[in-house]
Each structure stands twice: as C-alpha cells, then as structure tokens.
C-alpha cells in the first residue's frame, strides 16, 4: 500500500473505497487544458454524477517515491450505466504530481479514484433572480456543469480569474444569458474588486476560486452586497503559493494529502494582457433576498418570541429542580436531619412541580392567543394582497401553490409560534443546565460523559460522509417513486387489461428502489446499533458508577456528589442529542414564513396616479400600442406589437404554441401589466383604470371556468349583484343553460357544490351566461373553450354565438377554420406580428398564415395547454 | 397494528420475529437488573466502606455488557426484519393493488395507496429497530424494575408496579389529547383558510365581475367571526396535554417521599433509601423515553395505517387462476338487468340495463355526458363488477371467471392512453408479449405507429418516458391502439378520446379499427361521426337507459335523439366565431 499520509488514514476511517480507473482517451481542449476520458466499472456504485460533483484521485509521486498525492477533479460528463466519465485537468509548468501524470497519461493507464464527500448543484423549483458564478481555470469544469443546467431564461454572470493568457481558450458551456468577465489576477483582492457593484437582490452565488481570492470575495459579497449565507456557496478550489500540482482542483481544504516536500512555487501573476478593468463603477447596493423574508414576517412577534423563550427556559429549569431537591434530600438524610426539614423539602418539591406545570400551561395558552391574533392579521394581509396581485400570478402558480402558502404555510407558522420556539429552547436549555450543574458538582465525571457523545458524533460523521450523495439521491428517489406510483395507480385499468408486461416497468423500478434503500442502509446497521448502545442510559450509568466508585473509594470525592450524576447524568446523552431534533421544527416554520413573506412581497397592480394618458381613439376601440412584455427581464414574450381592434369587430390571434398569442390576449384582460408601450381601451390606458373601471368594459371567457360557492343565480349575476331573476334567466337561456338549471334540485337557487355538480360544458355555459349578463363591450375569448367536451360542444358554441354578437372580440385561435370570418387575423411569431389581414388576404399572400393553413388542412393544430 | 406488521412479514421470518421479541425481553431484564444492582452499589458507596462497592460494580459491568451483547443481536435481527418488511411489504402492496376494485380508488384512497408505495419504504426499514424495540423496552423496563424491587423493598416495588398503568394511561391520554388538539388546530386552520383559497382561486371571475373588493370584505368578516370560535376550541385542548408531564413529576415526588418516609421510620437504612431513589429515577426515565418516541410512533402508525388501508380494500372476485383462454372466435355478449353504482351510497349509474351484442358486430354507444357510456364499457372490460345483474360472454357469467381469464377476453383502447416507461415497441408488445414479428408489424402498421417512429431518432426503440410523457397525446393514442390490436382478444372495446385529436389522428383511429381483421365483437364509445359511421349498430344511452337502438341510417331516418345529436355534431364541426349576425338558434 502506497503511503497516503494522514488524509489517507482519515479517508479509510470514513470507509472510502478505491476504484481502479482506466484512461480510455484524451483530448486537448486548450494548450494547457486536457480532457481525459476515463472508465471504471465499479466507481458509480459509490459516485453520483451530478453537476459540480467531484472525485478524489491518487496520483503517483513524481519523484518515484512511495507516497501518493491526492487531488480532486470535477466530473465534467458521465455515462453512469457504462461507467465512463471525463475529467478536465489544467496542465502546469513546473508540474506537480497531477499535472505530470495528466501530461503523460495515455489510454490504458490506470489510477485509483475515490468518491468520498462531493458537492452537487441543484436549481430550485423557483430559481433565483440570477446566478453569479466565480472561479478560474480550476473550477471551470464545475462552472461548466452549472451552466449546463441553469434554465435558459435565468441570467448568469461569470467572473473568471485569469492566470495565464491561455486560460481564455478553455471552452465554456454556452448559455444564452451568460456573460463572462475575465479578471487578470493582480493579487488576492483583484477578483473581488472586479465584481460589478450593483443590486444583487435574489441572486445566488457559486464561488470556487483560489483560497486567497475567496477570502476577499466572501467579505465583499456578504458585507457589501448583503448576500445571505443560504444564497452563497463558497469553496476554495486551490491555494495560491503552494505547488502547482496541489494548486489545481483540490476542492476542499479539510483532509490534507501528504505532500512530498516539494518547493512551494508561487507563480508570477500572468502579465495582464490588457489594461486591468477597474472595479466597474456604480454604487453597491445592499440587496434584499427572499431568503431573508422569514425574519421580516416574524418581526412583529420578535419580542413575544424572545419572552416566551425566556419563560420556557424558566419552566425547563423548574422541571429539573426536583432532581436537585432529591440530592439535597439525600444530603439531609445522611446528615440525620430532623423530620421537619425533610417535610419542608417535600413541600418545596411539590410546590415546584405545581408551579412548573402551571407556568408551562400558562405559557402555552398565552402563545396560542398571540398566535391566533397574528394569524388573523396575516390572513387579512394575504386577502388584501390576493385582491391586488396581477391575475397572471394565480395562473402561473396554479392552485397548488396558493394552497401551500395560504393553508399549509400558515399552519406551519402556527407550530412555529406556539410550539417550535419553546421546544427548541427546552431542547437547548435542559442539557446546558444539566451540564453546568454537573460540572459544578464534579468536573471529572462531567467531562467523562462526553465520551459516549463523542462516539455518537464520530459515527454520525462517518455515516454522513459515507452516505454522500445518497442522501440527496434518496429524496430524488422518493419523489420519483411518488410520481411512478401515481402513474401505476392511474394505469391500473390498462395494467388489468394488458396484464403483467404493462406493470413490469413499475415492478422493476420498485425493485431498484428497494435495492437502493438496502445498499444505502444495510452497511450502517452496525454503526446505528453502536450509536444506540453508546448513548443509552445503561451505558452512562456504568460509566458514572465506575468513575464514582473509583473516586469515592479513593477518597477523592464526596459520595453525595455522585447523586446528581446518577439522577441526571444517565439521560444526558439523550438530552444533548435532542437539540438537533428540537431545532428542526424551527427550520420548517422559517421556510414557511419565508414563502408567505415572498407572497406578501409580490408586486401589485398599480393604478397609475399621474395625469390620465388619453388618446383620441374612437369609443369602444382597443389599441395595442407597441406593446412589449416579459415574464423575466431580458426574455421578451411580446415585443413591439401594435394592433387596433375597431368596435364590433372580430380580431383573431394566430400562431404556433409559444408565439405569445395567449399572453397578448391576457394583457388586454390585465392579467399582467405591459412592460413597454400601452394598451388603451376607448382611448384610456388600462393602467389608468381601476380594476372595476376596466372590467366594466372588458370581459373574458377562458378555458378554466370559475364558479363561486353560491347559488346558480348568484353565480350568473356575479357582476350584477342585484339583477332580477328575469334578467338572469334570459342570460341562462341565451347560454343554452336554462333547461339544465331547471333540472337541478332547487333550480336557480341550487347551491353549486359536490352534490349539485355541473359537467364541464355546463360550467362553460354558466360562465358564458355570466359574461352575457355583465355585458362588456370588449371580450377576450379562448377559442378552445368551444371544443372542451364533445357532448356539449354544440351548446357551448351556440352560447358563444350569443355572447360575441355585437362586441369587440379578441379571440385566441387554435383552429384556423373557426376564425375565417374574422375582420382581421394577426399572425404572431416569437412575440412579433408576422402578418395581419383577413383570411382571404393572408391566404392569397402565401406567407406564414398560408403555411399554417395548409398544414392545418391535414393536421389542425392541437389546442395548446392553457397557459393563461 | 402489530397484526398488520406480522402480516407484512414473509412467513419464514415470523419465527425470527419471535426470537427478536425474546431477546428484547431478555435485554430489558438485564437493564432492570443493572438498575437494581445500584441498590447494593450505592449503599456501599454511602456506607462506611466504599471499597465494598467494587464487586457490585464488576457485576454491573457484566450485566451491562451482557445487555450490549443481547441488544446487538436483537438489533441485527431487527434490521433484518426491517429489510424483510420493506421487500415483502412493498411488493405485497404493489401486487395487492392489481386486485383491488377500481371503484375503491377515490381521490383520497388513491393518495393513500400512492403514499403506501412511495413513502413508507424508509419507515418500514426502521420500524422494528426504532419503534417496536424501544417502545417494548420503555413499557417493559418499568415493570421489570418494579418486579426487581419487590424483594428489596416490598412497598416501593408495589407502588412502582401500581404506577405503571397510571403513568402509561397518562401517557396515552396526553398523546390522544395532543393529537386531537393538533387535528383541531389543523381543522381550524383549514376552516379559516379554505375561504381564502377559494377567494384566490376565483380571482379572475371576481375581478371580471368587479366583486374582488366586496368579496374580500365578506371573506374578511366571515374569518373574523369564525376566528373567536376556533381559538376557544384550540385553547380548551391545552390543559390535557400537560397530564403526562404532571403525572411523571408527581410520581417522582411521591415515590421519593415514600422511600424517605420508610427511611425515617427506620424500615430502611439511609444509604439504601438513597440508592432506591436513584432506582426510581431510572424507573421514570423509561416513561420519558416513551415521550421522546412519540413522533416516531406517529410516523410509523401513519405508514402502517396506509398499508392496512390497501390491504383491507375490497378486491375483485374470482381467483387469480390461469386457465388457458377458452374463447375462440367473436363471442356474443349479453348484459342482463345490469345495475351499477360507484359507491354503496352513491346514485345508480345504470339500473336494469339489458343489452345484447351479437357476435362479430361493431356497436357504437352514443349519448350525452353522464349517461353511463363509459360505465358500460368498463363493465364489459371486467374493470367493474355489476352491483346487480349479470354480464354473459357466450353464455358464461363473467363473475364466475378468474381475474386473468376475464382479462384474456378483452382488449381495450383507453381514453387516457397510459403507457409504461419503456420503448414504443415494448409498449405495443404488452398487448401480446409472445407475438411474432409479422403480427407486431401488422398491428403497428394498422395503427400507423410507423409514422410516429419514423420521426424519432431511435425509431420503435424510442423510450416513451414516464407514463408516456415523451410522446404527444396523438402519438400515445396510436401506440395504445397498436397495443390493443395486437392483443388476440375476442372482444375489442374502444373509449374514444373526448379531447380534440387532430384530424389526421382521428382518421387513423377510425381506419385502424375498420381494417382490423381479427374476429372480434367490438364496442366503441364514440363522439365522432367518423367512428359512428363504421358501426353496424348504434345504441343511444341516456341516464343509464337505452333510448334508441338501430343502424346509423335507420336512426337518422327516425329523426329522434340520435338524429339531433348527429346534426349538432355536424354543425359543431363547421362552427366559426362571429360578432356580426347571431347564428340561428334552434332551442
């Protein structure tokens, strides 16, 4: 076995396994940057190739010595099934062990690699505002893997420290919104200074530069820009001033490989090939992060929570008091105290028990009352917020998200306020108080109590390291099984008709999952048992009894001093380990608080306060005036669209899915506000109108129907609350729904719900009746509405005919034949107007519309998923 | 719960479970012995000759070490049992699910079943070792300590034993009250937030109707009114949650008081009394441990409850027997006074339906939504069993057939064409895994799957993704048709997709069914005129009854409900959006 020094021993202690890796190919990506294709049949039993994941390699000693040198390299690509992967290495001159090896490595060479500890990069469901990636040639492989997974619409700023002119030749993974800045190194502070001073609110930073640069970076990012800890991943990838071999790609400082005494070579900073960019001008703004939202939400409760924590601390101490009294009791008994003294002690004990219980109960009651008030205010704030947010917020998020925030997160907050804080305080105070007490009584035995705890902590550490990526893989598995189980259940009818073959894929997956759980957990059974045995009271008892007997029999301790240990010391381990559990409740609550605050921070639709922007449009005219819109800055969905809708005409929006037709229509209904340009209704900018003013003129019927929990009458008369029954009935007749309503248990007075449910087509007709009664002059319509349900298509279409008659209509068209009668057809492509005209004109013009039409003759475009 | 647990274990492991239980008891006994050994040990330490404690310490060390050894063995068996539970339990559920009646799968049950498969795995592994063993230990240890105290100090031993049911009762009550309080808080929260969720859900409608602000006021007022009531409800639950804490503290004081009193009366030596107080603390420790296990107990009970829900769900009748399919040629199918409802208290979807489908014919079932078309199809497919009446295939009651035999009779094109994660070829082959290459090619050609695979880089070896999501709806439909055609079943059932397929796909579906040469009796729930056109016979269903029955032309000539339907469908296909002239209204 080659010498691997201390870190080798540590890694073996952690149970690291060596895998033999064979070079199968090499490719030069830049003069000093080589990509090695490697293969190992067994490596991926341990390793998981996720973005930024790395492996440790043991390189031979360049001087032919016994020792091996550990360096870590990012997996730049991998095919786990066949065990092939690539790593990218920087070649240095003069070369250290890794560079030297890489320089000469040829197919057929082998090397040992270990997967132990690694990192992974995940894009969360709701990505940050942007990614700030910082590094240099050593971390480019990791940065490349990040660039490969960040969604195309998320902006990325890449800052790379340049040490060598050739660094710029290293290929970077392309990303449509990434901007790269090369910063020639002038010292440890130059990289940090080069980061643009701007508002980095809600950005996430991933930094893998040289250690010295990192120190300065950290300071600047945290102190100047205000990056919270949770939004900043920082890891030194190498150390300046050590050997070149060491310098590249050792992504973590902790297990130091034994390096043969090579001269430390401090490379001269590469001569700056261009004038060094001064720190970009602009003022640094301390940003605000969603991640910090929880603190703001809970700010009004701060004092209450602190006070409750303090009270809980008292309660916890009172609950421990009887044990102290028992020690006192023993002391008095040994001293042969009078009976009355003992009775007094008993009285005290009973009194304290009563007081502790009362105080604890009162605290809980008080917190519940506080929480109830807070929750009520919070719900009122949420209500207010929901009423003023852009409608698009709801359609983008979906009802699941709203439920999560409004129902689940408020409940989580209830536990945070009423239980989590006291639990956490109790979990911390109890062991600390016990420990302090025991140390005061006898520090020797108290110190010994840490022995089993140490065993526990070290075993846990080994397990955490050995689990490595499996921990996160486990949650990925569980998500995946949840999806697959859902599909398996959904597919039950198919499985029953087609039998085993149809179910075999799921069975195979289930076996894999069970296999994964087994492979992961089985090796730990022994360790888990050890942890349990080490921390159980019986073990502590033996430890205490042994030390006690020894100290007492040698006369080094008063026997009474042993009592506190026998009474409180045996559960010390359990108490100490309970801290983590007690604190976990806080985390869940804080996440919920953060989500609620994020919702409360969402921007609201503003009613423009300044002078009304009036244009001389004819009444009833709708004008899209150079309208632009983007969901994310820099990714326009609508760009410079100008359309005029004349009163009483039909305008159809046509285009492939993703062309922006649904978004454009939604803008008129003010689901979002335009980014540039304006939409005017009757000459007034829609942003100058209050919601009520706007919707008195503009109505919409989309695929999603929305019924409120009320009677049929009230549902139809939603916009005209006092409407007489005759008018409601007239609207229902026009919508071909009157007969159906009469068949409901209580006719128009039937409350809609699970017992009196309407079919999809009927719900559509009800919303159409509602729109007929509301009588807007402008109507936005999704044509797919007419084809929702084949059995009621005809009725819905007849109802739509009644609704559209005489109005200014903007229709999102999915089937071209339904809009051949339109007064104007606007063909959208990539957010621009490609063509506009009547059907005959566009058909004759032979442009994009013609192509869509010809394609549709054989294959009508399927209605796109409702993105509204 | 224990029974559910034992049922989940494979039979050969149940003996191991018994061994594990025995070792657990032994481990507890050793721990109790260790606790009681403290009496002479501590008494010596407090006595005149502390050195006399050494032998006792040696004994304590021996007992503790023996305990470690026993518990290590028990843990090894416990983990083994856990892994067996995982393997056997999970497969058991997956198997069981294929036999559970489809009507059982309500939204709630489906969610339960999904969780039973997807999330209970890790819980099952740790069930024995983290739950059964510690809970058993926590309950048995105080009893064992009490018993061990009897010879040393009878009154104290009796008091300790008497305390066990009291403390366990307090623990149980606290847990119950705590759970009830949690549920109350949750219900209260749901009540208070449901209206906000609804308010958010209906925002577009409310705003379009200019009602967002008034509705907000209404919801706000309703919430304020509800708030007081729910808060009172929650507050009432709190005192009960303190019961266990109070009981264990009181027990400490009382037992220690008893000991002191005995010492004061001279029945006990002072060192012995002190030693006994230490033993009492250890006795109470076990109950505290029980409290710490509560979250684990909750998780495990939930997991077991989910598994039990699946295990006790009603299953389809008939054995799993596998007899070779007997049906040869297209059969005659008869529904005899068939009634059906989805749940015991639900309305009858079908009530006394009589229908005969002649051998080799193609019947189109047509009717408004909710008329029971798909139910009839599901009954024919054997996916549901009639609540009353019989389904006869060539005179044989399908209820008398095994599940697999019934499955062999039918092939189905489902409305939602579920594909499993595999290649297109594998999915088609699911229809008949042993099919020869030419038959496979024929089915693929009929369903025009070739047009789909030609566009894909890997052709028919292309993976369809989870639940077929890598393919478009139309493409999935074609694969599912090929699968159905490949299956050599004498009955072919088609539930036509309601969502608008593109015209090309629509034609493909119609043509594939028309060109299928296998002798079958076919039934199609049809929405499109093209599909209905090919049927020998049309059955018009309304409210679960046959209202019209005849050939397409015959019914069209009769001018009844079907003729109306036909005309409306024709008009609907030519519909256009207009703003000028209101279209002719016929109602």
UniProtKB/TrEMBL annotation, chain A:
Domain ABC transporter: 622-855
Cofactor(s) needed for function: FAD
SUPFAM superfamilies: ABC transporter transmembrane region (SSF90123), P-loop containing nucleoside triphosphate hydrolases (SSF52540), Riboflavin synthase domain-like (SSF63380)
Transmembrane segments: 305-327, 347-370, 413-439, 445-465, 538-556, 562-586
UniProt-listed PROSITE patterns: ABC_TM1F, ABC_TRANSPORTER_1, ABC_TRANSPORTER_2, FAD_FR
InterPro entries referenced in this protein's UniProt entry, alphabetically: AAA+_ATPase, ABC1_TM_dom, ABC1_TM_sf, ABC_transporter-like_ATP-bd, ABC_transporter-like_CS, FAD-bd_FR_type, FNR_nucleotide-bd, P-loop_NTPase
Keyword presence, Transport: yes
Domain FAD-binding FR-type: 16-124
Entry coiled-coil feature ranges: none
Domain ABC transmembrane type-1: 306-588
Cellular component GO terms held in the UniProt record: plasma membrane
Stored Gene3D superfamilies: ABC transporter type 1, transmembrane domain, Nucleotide-binding domain of ferredoxin-NADP reductase (FNR) module, P-loop containing nucleotide triphosphate hydrolases, Translation factors
A molecular-function term among this protein's GO annotations: oxidoreductase activity
Highest rank taxon of the organism: Bacteria
UniProt-annotated location(s): Cell inner membrane
Record region (Disordered): 248-282
Biased composition (Pro residues): 256-278
Membrane topology: Multi-pass membrane protein
Annotated keywords: ATP-binding, Cell inner membrane, Cell membrane, FAD, Flavoprotein, Membrane, Nucleotide-binding, Transmembrane, Transmembrane helix, Transport
Xref: PANTHER family: ATP-BINDING CASSETTE SUB-FAMILY B, ATP-BINDING CASSETTE SUB-FAMILY B MEMBER 6
Family: Belongs to the ABC transporter superfamily. Siderophore-Fe(3+) uptake transporter (SIUT) (TC 3.A.1.21) family.
Quaternary data: Forms a heterodimer with IrtB.
Name this polypeptide is given: Mycobactin import ATP-binding/permease protein IrtA
Species this chain originates from: Phytohabitans suffuscus
Automatic annotation (TrEMBL), chain B:
Ranges for domain ABC transporter: 333-568
Occurrences of domain ABC transmembrane type-1 (ranges): 21-299
Gene3D superfamilies from the UniProt entry: ABC transporter type 1, transmembrane domain (1.20.1560.10), P-loop containing nucleotide triphosphate hydrolases (3.40.50.300)
Compartmental location: Cell inner membrane
GO molecular function: ABC-type transporter activity; ATP binding; ATP hydrolysis activity; ATPase-coupled lipid transmembrane transporter activity
InterPro entries: AAA+_ATPase, ABC1_TM_dom, ABC1_TM_sf, ABC_transporter-like_ATP-bd, ABC_transporter-like_CS, P-loop_NTPase, Type_1_exporter
Keywords from the named record: ATP-binding, Cell inner membrane, Cell membrane, Membrane, Nucleotide-binding, Transmembrane, Transmembrane helix, Transport
Family per similarity comment: Belongs to the ABC transporter superfamily. Siderophore-Fe(3+) uptake transporter (SIUT) (TC 3.A.1.21) family.
Protein name: ABC transporter ATP-binding protein
Source species of the chain: Phytohabitans suffuscus
